[in-house]
Design brief:
With 463 residues, this protein is an alpha/beta fold. The chain folds into two domains: 235 residues, Zn peptidases (Aminopeptidase), CATH 3.40.630.10; 150 residues, Alpha-Beta Plaits, CATH 3.30.70. The chain has 14 helices and 19 strands. The chain has a six-stranded mixed β-sheet, sandwiched between helices. It has a four-stranded mixed β-sheet with strand order 16-9-8-18. A four-stranded antiparallel β-sheet has the order 12-14-10-15, with helices on one face. A hairpin with a 7-residue loop joins strand 1 and strand 2. The chain is globular, with a radius of gyration of 24 Å.
Length: 463
Amino acid sequence: MKLRSIVLRKKIPAILLCGLFSVGSAAGADRVPTANELLAGLIAIPTTGESARAREAAEFLAERLRSAGFPGEDVQLLGPSKTVGGLVARLPGRGEKRPVLLLAHLDVVPAVAESWSTDPFRLTADDGYLYGRGTLDNKAGAANLISNLIRLKQEGFVPERDLVVVLTLDEETDMLSVRWLLDHHKALLDAEFALNTDAGGVQLIDDKAAVFGIQAAEKVYMTLELRASNPGGHSSVPQPDNAIYTLAKALHRISDYRFPVNLNDITRANFANPPESAGKSVGLAMRRLASNQANPQDIALLQNDPSTNAQMRTTCVATQISGGHAENALPTYAIAVINCRILPQESAANVESRLLKVIADDAISMRRTYEPEASPPSALTPEVLDRITRIASKMFTGAKITPVMATGATDGLYTRGAGIPTYGISAIALPSADNREHGIDERIKQSAFDDSVEFWYRLLMTL
């Protein structure tokens, strides 16, 4: 997900933590590695883009599991290449119920070191925060799951069902890892449901927990290419038919278009119970929309906020543009990339059809460059919701526990598509204005990380 970044110009006094638990050292079976130690080791491995070093991060964690007493058959590094696949680790249970999957990913988006106040690939502590690329997205989740799996193992805990941790290598790019694992090792990943550390979260308002989100749906990702073609010619003799102008007109029409409002069970439940932070007028409009009583003024008010608007409808937006072959020649082509985030209850074909009608120009061709993957919303069954709610209400007192739909995409898109209900519950608390995923000086509050580790420990004990 492309998220807001905040630039800090002040240089932070570095307290580097990566030396606490070096990448090359073994933990030893006599003690449990802390989540901070595992996070430090992961941050120190730059697992960006198509880098094969995500596999190195998986090997780092696999070694920690083996050192803690996990047998080889319960710690598997799988994949057709060093950039596709991941780590599958299992804590065997009593077999009374089907397994549960626990998801995280090890790759991160790139970081320009010169823009950061700290080294993005060293875990750095300052003023109660941990800085480093992946502290939020999603190495904190991986460190959280592995540290808790080792802790449960060394405490002798045997769950009623197998707990299966799946750490993928390329969630930030093509998501081939989760697809490959589901296609080639479905038996290993067979589960009653999945819990994803890469979604959900706790919204803070005035340092108090206001909302505990349980992500039960996410939008479907599709990318389209629009192309206008033309014979071209010499720029000294302009023609009325110009590929760039033709494409520009089409993009202008798309920018003015709004897809219909269409709530699903998850967004309807969310709108029916808005947080107090939404404000009186917005909250009332949300409740009216949830009960099918919204008027045009309600819709206009809600769509003014980009985040709320993205919850209400499918969105398609231009993200890249190119065209022409020389500055002194009329363009023979112009191309635009349109990224669509489709509501899970809508069809990609219908979205394409609507866009073609909006463009209304036979001179524009359209093709898919990223195929959508169906991902139906996951029903909030009592077995899942009650356990989460019981722990969240105790740890995050006063927070409104509510289902949410993510506007971005995670590996959960594919586990849902494979028939595994998937719920995002990172349990990491932060103010929405300080969400630095994918941004400069990505960070997580130490206390928030500690709380999320404790939350997951309690939750795993109930599973």
